[in-house]
Amino acid sequence: xxxxxxxxxxxxxxxATPVLAHVFWIQPSTFSPGAGQVLAVQxxxxxxxxxxxLPRDDQKIVRFDAIGKSFPGGEAHPxxxxxxxxxxxxxxxxxPGVHILAYQSSxxxxxxxxxxxxxxxxxxxxxxxxxxxxxxxxxxxxxxxVFSRSVKSxxxxxxxxxxxxxxxxxxxxxxxxxxxxxxxRARGTVRLRLIFEGKPLPGALVQLRxxxxxxxxxxxxxxxxxEASVVIPAAGSWLxxxxxxxxxxxxxxxxxxxxxxSLSFATADAVTDPGSHTTVVxx
Length: 283
Prior knowledge:
CATH class: Mainly Beta
Number of helices: 2
Order of helices and strands: EEEEEEEEHHEEEEEEEEEEE
Distance between the termini: 23 Å
CATH topology: Immunoglobulin-like
Number of strands: 19
Shape: globular
CATH superfamily: Macroglobulin (MG2) domain
């Protein structure tokens, strides 16, 4: 079964188990809450799904918001929570339709050995950084990096789809869907645009993952306009993720800065059991 369109190159070794547990996403207690229902919002990380929940750390939060017509003017509404607790936040939507959950973290430093760093660059499609290291003669050197998260999730309140799915949250790095992922069904196509610091990002590797199983199932590069298309192979909960890396600023004390983006959602023909992360196909 063909599960990807506009695939640039083959899906190769970078879909193997990553060197680092960098996949990070928003996991709501349900992707289809009822109007007036309190929604629990988890932050999760891991190389295998369902990953591990991260407790709320207010020192790491730059933004943690809900966006949609449940709030005056559609403005961002802070997601509240208690420090050190899981779930990381709670929010209530009052109006039907698609709403956005958005999270942006402050930078975190990490140091990696030369070999591990080069493997990581290959896995994440960051060959341009490998070339820069080769040009500067630092391929064999350890790497100092700072990384941050820019992640979103879409929920369809009262199971309604449509307007609001493509609203920009204003994150530093953002995956903006051009088709409503909450309205797609199995084998449907979702087009995405990658926006980094306000501009379309070409050539980035976008990976598609099932939230209920291990590993990426497909990968595609964004085109010259920053767009990529993926075919969702089955009903369920899904995640698309990508990363951009640039030379770090002098004051960061690092060599490189990476920003990790993801978008989680559920298809229109499935609901997610928040306890087991399994999916049930709607009739």
